[in-house]
Q: What sequence folds into this?
Protein backbone atom coordinates (compact mmCIF):
# COMPACT_ATOMS: atom_id res chain seq x y z
CA UNK A 1 0.00 0.00 0.00
CA UNK A 2 1.49 3.32 -1.09
CA UNK A 3 1.44 5.84 1.75
CA UNK A 4 3.05 9.20 2.40
CA UNK A 5 5.51 9.90 5.15
CA UNK A 6 6.25 13.63 4.82
CA UNK A 7 3.70 15.86 3.09
CA UNK A 8 3.59 19.43 4.40
CA UNK A 9 3.80 23.17 3.86
CA UNK A 10 6.05 25.20 6.13
CA UNK A 11 6.42 28.90 6.87
CA UNK A 12 9.23 30.35 8.95
CA UNK A 13 10.35 33.81 10.05
CA UNK A 14 12.30 35.16 13.01
CA UNK A 15 9.55 34.54 15.58
CA UNK A 16 7.32 31.74 14.21
CA UNK A 17 7.58 28.40 12.44
CA UNK A 18 4.30 26.96 11.14
CA UNK A 19 4.00 23.46 9.68
CA UNK A 20 0.76 22.32 8.00
CA UNK A 21 0.57 18.63 7.12
CA UNK A 22 2.71 15.70 8.20
CA UNK A 23 6.46 16.04 8.84
CA UNK A 24 8.85 13.66 10.54
CA UNK A 25 10.20 14.90 13.87
CA UNK A 26 13.83 15.93 14.34
CA UNK A 27 16.26 13.06 14.96
CA UNK A 28 17.97 13.61 18.32
CA UNK A 29 21.03 12.17 20.06
CA UNK A 30 22.56 11.06 16.72
CA UNK A 31 19.67 8.63 16.28
CA UNK A 32 20.94 6.45 19.13
CA UNK A 33 18.11 6.91 21.67
CA UNK A 34 15.49 4.19 22.23
CA UNK A 35 12.78 6.90 22.29
CA UNK A 36 14.45 9.70 20.27
CA UNK A 37 14.60 11.47 23.66
CA UNK A 38 10.79 11.68 23.65
CA UNK A 39 8.90 9.02 25.62
CA UNK A 40 5.52 10.08 24.20
CA UNK A 41 6.48 10.55 20.53
CA UNK A 42 9.42 8.38 19.64
CA UNK A 43 9.11 8.44 15.83
CA UNK A 44 7.94 4.81 15.81
CA UNK A 45 4.94 5.69 13.59
CA UNK A 46 4.34 7.75 10.46
CA UNK A 47 4.11 11.50 11.18
CA UNK A 48 0.76 12.82 12.42
CA UNK A 49 -1.19 15.23 10.21
CA UNK A 50 -2.16 18.64 11.55
CA UNK A 51 -1.03 22.20 12.21
CA UNK A 52 2.03 22.87 14.40
CA UNK A 53 3.00 26.36 15.58
CA UNK A 54 6.32 26.75 17.41
CA UNK A 55 9.27 29.00 18.10
CA UNK A 56 11.91 28.64 15.34
CA UNK A 57 14.64 29.02 17.98
CA UNK A 58 14.57 29.41 21.74
CA UNK A 59 13.54 32.96 22.71
CA UNK A 60 16.26 34.68 24.72
CA UNK A 61 14.84 36.30 27.86
CA UNK A 62 18.20 37.19 29.43
CA UNK A 63 21.83 36.10 29.28
CA UNK A 64 20.83 33.18 31.52
CA UNK A 65 17.31 32.15 30.47
CA UNK A 66 15.64 31.22 27.18
CA UNK A 67 12.16 29.88 26.47
CA UNK A 68 10.92 27.44 23.84
CA UNK A 69 7.23 26.76 23.07
CA UNK A 70 4.92 24.89 20.70
CA UNK A 71 1.21 24.21 20.25
CA UNK A 72 -0.49 21.95 17.71
CA UNK A 73 -3.76 20.40 16.61
CA UNK A 74 -3.62 16.98 14.91
CA UNK A 75 -6.33 14.76 13.45
CA UNK A 76 -6.01 10.99 13.98
CA UNK A 77 -7.36 9.94 10.59
CA UNK A 78 -6.66 6.20 10.83
CA UNK A 79 -9.11 3.35 11.52
CA UNK A 80 -9.74 3.62 15.28
CA UNK A 81 -12.14 2.42 17.97
CA UNK A 82 -13.32 6.04 18.32
CA UNK A 83 -13.64 7.74 14.92
CA UNK A 84 -12.38 11.24 14.06
CA UNK A 85 -10.30 11.71 17.19
CA UNK A 86 -8.57 15.05 17.66
CA UNK A 87 -5.17 15.40 19.30
CA UNK A 88 -4.06 18.49 21.22
CA UNK A 89 -0.34 19.08 21.84
CA UNK A 90 1.73 21.74 23.59
CA UNK A 91 5.18 22.07 25.12
CA UNK A 92 7.03 24.67 27.15
CA UNK A 93 10.76 24.63 27.86
CA UNK A 94 13.03 26.75 30.03
CA UNK A 95 16.71 26.69 29.05
CA UNK A 96 19.09 27.88 31.76
CA UNK A 97 22.63 28.73 30.65
CA UNK A 98 24.76 28.35 33.76
CA UNK A 99 27.93 29.47 31.98
CA UNK A 100 29.61 29.10 28.58
CA UNK A 101 29.93 25.31 28.98
CA UNK A 102 26.93 24.22 31.05
CA UNK A 103 23.17 24.46 30.51
CA UNK A 104 20.00 22.83 31.86
CA UNK A 105 16.80 22.32 29.86
CA UNK A 106 13.52 21.74 31.72
CA UNK A 107 10.56 20.86 29.50
CA UNK A 108 6.91 19.93 30.03
CA UNK A 109 4.96 18.20 27.24
CA UNK A 110 1.20 17.63 27.13
CA UNK A 111 -0.96 15.60 24.71
CA UNK A 112 -4.71 14.99 24.86
CA UNK A 113 -6.99 12.88 22.65
CA UNK A 114 -10.49 14.38 22.53
CA UNK A 115 -13.68 14.56 20.48
CA UNK A 116 -14.78 11.94 18.00
CA UNK A 117 -17.56 9.39 17.79
CA UNK A 118 -17.49 6.51 20.27
CA UNK A 119 -19.39 3.19 19.81
CA UNK A 120 -19.90 3.17 23.61
CA UNK A 121 -20.71 6.84 24.40
CA UNK A 122 -21.78 8.31 21.06
CA UNK A 123 -20.63 11.76 19.95
CA UNK A 124 -17.99 12.99 22.41
CA UNK A 125 -17.69 16.69 23.38
CA UNK A 126 -15.96 18.63 20.61
CA UNK A 127 -16.94 22.30 20.98
CA UNK A 128 -14.84 25.22 22.27
CA UNK A 129 -15.93 24.57 25.85
CA UNK A 130 -14.61 21.02 25.52
CA UNK A 131 -11.32 22.32 24.07
CA UNK A 132 -10.98 24.67 27.07
CA UNK A 133 -11.39 21.71 29.42
CA UNK A 134 -8.90 19.69 27.38
CA UNK A 135 -6.35 22.52 27.31
CA UNK A 136 -6.41 22.89 31.10
CA UNK A 137 -7.09 19.19 31.85
CA UNK A 138 -10.40 19.87 33.58
CA UNK A 139 -12.99 17.24 34.54
CA UNK A 140 -15.12 15.67 31.84
CA UNK A 141 -18.69 14.42 31.54
CA UNK A 142 -20.26 12.78 34.58
CA UNK A 143 -21.66 9.90 32.47
CA UNK A 144 -18.15 8.76 31.49
CA UNK A 145 -16.55 7.42 34.71
CA UNK A 146 -12.89 7.84 33.71
CA UNK A 147 -13.40 11.43 32.53
CA UNK A 148 -15.48 12.39 35.55
CA UNK A 149 -12.69 11.14 37.83
CA UNK A 150 -9.76 12.56 35.84
CA UNK A 151 -10.20 14.96 32.90
CA UNK A 152 -12.03 15.38 29.61
CA UNK A 153 -10.21 13.32 26.99
CA UNK A 154 -7.21 11.01 27.21
CA UNK A 155 -4.26 12.97 28.63
CA UNK A 156 -0.57 12.11 28.47
CA UNK A 157 2.36 14.23 29.55
CA UNK A 158 5.97 14.23 30.59
CA UNK A 159 8.56 16.26 32.47
CA UNK A 160 12.00 16.30 30.82
CA UNK A 161 15.23 17.47 32.47
CA UNK A 162 18.49 17.56 30.49
CA UNK A 163 21.92 18.70 31.73
CA UNK A 164 24.51 19.40 29.01
CA UNK A 165 28.20 20.12 29.43
CA UNK A 166 30.59 21.08 26.65
CA UNK A 167 34.08 19.63 27.00
CA UNK A 168 37.20 19.92 24.90
CA UNK A 169 36.33 16.64 23.14
CA UNK A 170 32.53 16.87 22.79
CA UNK A 171 29.14 17.37 24.48
CA UNK A 172 27.98 15.29 27.44
CA UNK A 173 24.24 15.07 28.13
CA UNK A 174 22.56 13.49 31.17
CA UNK A 175 18.76 13.43 31.18
CA UNK A 176 15.58 12.06 32.72
CA UNK A 177 12.06 12.02 31.26
CA UNK A 178 9.19 11.37 33.65
CA UNK A 179 5.83 10.31 32.09
CA UNK A 180 2.40 10.86 33.58
CA UNK A 181 -1.23 10.25 32.57
CA UNK A 182 -3.13 11.64 35.58
CA UNK A 183 -2.68 13.59 38.80
CA UNK A 184 -0.75 10.86 40.58
CA UNK A 185 1.88 10.71 37.84
CA UNK A 186 2.14 14.48 37.46
CA UNK A 187 2.63 14.58 41.24
CA UNK A 188 5.60 12.21 40.91
CA UNK A 189 3.84 9.27 42.61
CA UNK A 190 5.07 6.92 39.87
CA UNK A 191 8.82 7.36 40.52
CA UNK A 192 11.12 5.79 39.26
CA UNK A 193 9.15 5.42 36.00
CA UNK A 194 10.64 7.07 32.94
CA UNK A 195 13.82 7.29 30.90
CA UNK A 196 17.22 7.75 32.53
CA UNK A 197 19.99 8.40 30.01
CA UNK A 198 23.49 9.62 29.23
CA UNK A 199 24.79 10.60 25.79
CA UNK A 200 28.21 11.75 24.61
CA UNK A 201 28.80 13.21 21.15
CA UNK A 202 32.37 13.77 19.99
CA UNK A 203 33.49 16.91 18.18
CA UNK A 204 35.44 14.77 15.71
CA UNK A 205 34.45 12.15 13.13
CA UNK A 206 36.38 9.44 14.93
CA UNK A 207 36.02 5.66 15.02
CA UNK A 208 33.59 6.12 17.93
CA UNK A 209 31.98 9.56 17.72
CA UNK A 210 28.87 8.90 19.80
CA UNK A 211 27.78 6.78 22.75
CA UNK A 212 24.43 6.49 24.54
CA UNK A 213 23.01 4.43 27.39
CA UNK A 214 19.38 4.51 28.54
CA UNK A 215 17.48 2.71 31.28
CA UNK A 216 13.69 2.77 30.95
CA UNK A 217 11.41 1.73 33.82
CA UNK A 218 7.59 1.75 33.66
CA UNK A 219 6.57 -0.79 36.32
CA UNK A 220 5.41 1.57 39.08
CA UNK A 221 2.47 3.39 37.41
CA UNK A 222 1.31 4.80 40.81
CA UNK A 223 -0.18 1.36 41.42
CA UNK A 224 -0.18 1.60 45.23
CA UNK A 225 -1.93 4.98 45.23
CA UNK A 226 -5.67 5.38 45.81
CA UNK A 227 -6.29 6.41 42.18
CA UNK A 228 -4.94 3.07 40.91
CA UNK A 229 -2.52 2.16 38.14
CA UNK A 230 -1.97 4.56 35.22
CA UNK A 231 -2.02 1.71 32.64
CA UNK A 232 0.30 3.62 30.28
CA UNK A 233 -0.95 4.25 26.70
CA UNK A 234 -4.30 2.46 27.33
CA UNK A 235 -7.57 4.34 27.88
CA UNK A 236 -11.11 3.26 28.70
CA UNK A 237 -12.80 5.67 26.26
CA UNK A 238 -10.21 6.04 23.49
CA UNK A 239 -9.53 2.32 23.38
CA UNK A 240 -7.11 2.37 20.46
CA UNK A 241 -4.88 4.08 23.00
CA UNK A 242 -1.64 5.87 22.23
CA UNK A 243 -1.31 4.42 18.72
CA UNK A 244 -1.61 5.52 15.10
CA UNK A 245 -2.25 3.09 12.26
CA UNK A 246 -1.68 0.18 14.66
CA UNK A 247 1.79 1.39 15.65
CA UNK A 248 2.85 2.78 19.02
CA UNK A 249 3.29 6.57 18.96
CA UNK A 250 5.50 6.66 22.06
CA UNK A 251 7.99 4.33 23.76
CA UNK A 252 8.24 1.53 21.16
CA UNK A 253 9.17 -1.37 23.46
CA UNK A 254 5.71 -1.89 24.96
CA UNK A 255 3.76 -4.77 23.40
CA UNK A 256 0.81 -3.64 21.28
CA UNK A 257 -1.73 -6.16 19.95
CA UNK A 258 -4.57 -4.57 17.91
CA UNK A 259 -6.41 -7.91 17.83
CA UNK A 260 -6.95 -7.52 21.58
CA UNK A 261 -8.89 -4.27 21.09
CA UNK A 262 -12.57 -4.37 22.15
CA UNK A 263 -15.01 -2.70 24.53
CA UNK A 264 -13.65 -4.97 27.28
CA UNK A 265 -9.94 -5.35 26.44
CA UNK A 266 -7.00 -3.06 25.79
CA UNK A 267 -4.53 -3.33 22.85
CA UNK A 268 -1.44 -2.53 24.95
CA UNK A 269 -1.00 -5.96 26.51
CA UNK A 270 2.32 -5.06 28.16
CA UNK A 271 3.27 -1.62 29.48
CA UNK A 272 5.17 -2.74 32.60
CA UNK A 273 8.66 -2.76 31.15
CA UNK A 274 12.33 -2.57 32.02
CA UNK A 275 14.80 -1.72 29.27
CA UNK A 276 18.58 -1.45 29.00
CA UNK A 277 19.61 0.23 25.75
CA UNK A 278 23.04 0.94 24.24
CA UNK A 279 23.91 2.88 21.10
CA UNK A 280 27.23 3.60 19.35
CA UNK A 281 28.10 5.45 16.17
CA UNK A 282 31.34 6.39 14.44
CA UNK A 283 33.32 6.74 11.23
CA UNK A 284 35.81 4.58 9.37
CA UNK A 285 37.12 6.46 6.35
CA UNK A 286 33.94 7.43 4.42
CA UNK A 287 31.77 4.85 6.17
CA UNK A 288 29.51 5.86 9.06
CA UNK A 289 28.40 2.95 11.22
CA UNK A 290 25.70 2.73 13.90
CA UNK A 291 24.97 -0.10 16.34
CA UNK A 292 22.01 -0.25 18.75
CA UNK A 293 21.10 -3.05 21.12
CA UNK A 294 18.21 -3.28 23.61
CA UNK A 295 17.44 -5.85 26.29
CA UNK A 296 13.78 -5.69 27.35
CA UNK A 297 11.74 -7.32 30.10
CA UNK A 298 7.96 -7.15 29.55
CA UNK A 299 5.66 -8.29 32.37
CA UNK A 300 2.20 -7.41 30.98
CA UNK A 301 -0.15 -4.97 32.71
CA UNK A 302 -1.46 -4.70 36.25
CA UNK A 303 -4.90 -5.74 34.98
CA UNK A 304 -3.55 -8.74 33.01
CA UNK A 305 0.03 -9.66 34.06
CA UNK A 306 1.98 -12.22 32.05
CA UNK A 307 2.40 -15.67 33.61
CA UNK A 308 6.14 -15.30 33.00
CA UNK A 309 8.33 -12.36 32.00
CA UNK A 310 8.97 -11.95 28.25
CA UNK A 311 12.69 -11.45 27.66
CA UNK A 312 13.53 -9.79 24.36
CA UNK A 313 16.81 -8.71 22.75
CA UNK A 314 16.72 -6.26 19.83
CA UNK A 315 19.76 -5.47 17.64
CA UNK A 316 20.36 -3.03 14.80
CA UNK A 317 23.34 -2.27 12.53
CA UNK A 318 23.61 0.30 9.76
CA UNK A 319 26.53 1.34 7.52
CA UNK A 320 26.32 4.47 5.37
CA UNK A 321 28.61 5.46 2.49
CA UNK A 322 28.52 9.14 1.54
CA UNK A 323 29.85 10.98 -1.51
CA UNK A 324 29.32 14.56 -2.68
CA UNK A 325 28.81 13.42 -6.28
CA UNK A 326 26.65 10.30 -6.01
CA UNK A 327 24.74 10.75 -2.74
CA UNK A 328 24.33 8.40 0.22
CA UNK A 329 23.77 4.66 0.35
CA UNK A 330 22.82 2.99 3.64
CA UNK A 331 22.61 -0.72 4.41
CA UNK A 332 20.72 -1.96 7.49
CA UNK A 333 20.48 -5.24 9.41
CA UNK A 334 18.19 -6.14 12.30
CA UNK A 335 17.94 -9.18 14.58
CA UNK A 336 15.28 -9.62 17.28
CA UNK A 337 15.62 -12.53 19.70
CA UNK A 338 12.91 -13.65 22.12
CA UNK A 339 13.31 -16.61 24.44
CA UNK A 340 9.66 -17.69 24.16
CA UNK A 341 9.33 -17.49 20.34
CA UNK A 342 11.26 -17.57 17.06
CA UNK A 343 13.88 -14.95 16.27
CA UNK A 344 13.27 -12.37 13.54
CA UNK A 345 15.79 -11.05 11.00
CA UNK A 346 15.50 -8.14 8.61
CA UNK A 347 17.65 -6.25 6.10
CA UNK A 348 17.24 -3.20 3.93
CA UNK A 349 18.91 -0.27 2.21
CA UNK A 350 18.21 3.36 1.36
CA UNK A 351 19.57 5.68 -1.30
CA UNK A 352 19.47 9.45 -0.91
CA UNK A 353 20.49 12.12 -3.42
CA UNK A 354 20.05 15.84 -2.72
CA UNK A 355 19.81 18.30 -5.60
A:
Amino acid sequence: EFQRRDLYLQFKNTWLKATLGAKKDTVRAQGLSSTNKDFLRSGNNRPLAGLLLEAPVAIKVSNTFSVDWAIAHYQLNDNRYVDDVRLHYKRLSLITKLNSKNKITAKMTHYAQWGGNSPDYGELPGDFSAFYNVFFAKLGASDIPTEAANALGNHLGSYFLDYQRETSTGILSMYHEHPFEDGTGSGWSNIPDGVWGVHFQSNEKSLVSGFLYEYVHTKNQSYKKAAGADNYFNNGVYRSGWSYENRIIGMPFFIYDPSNLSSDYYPFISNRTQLHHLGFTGWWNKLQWTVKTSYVLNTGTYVAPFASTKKQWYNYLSVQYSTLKYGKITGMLGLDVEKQSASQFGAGFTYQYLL
In short: The longest helix spans residues 128-135. Helices lie at 128-135, 145-149, 183-186. The mean pLDDT is 93.
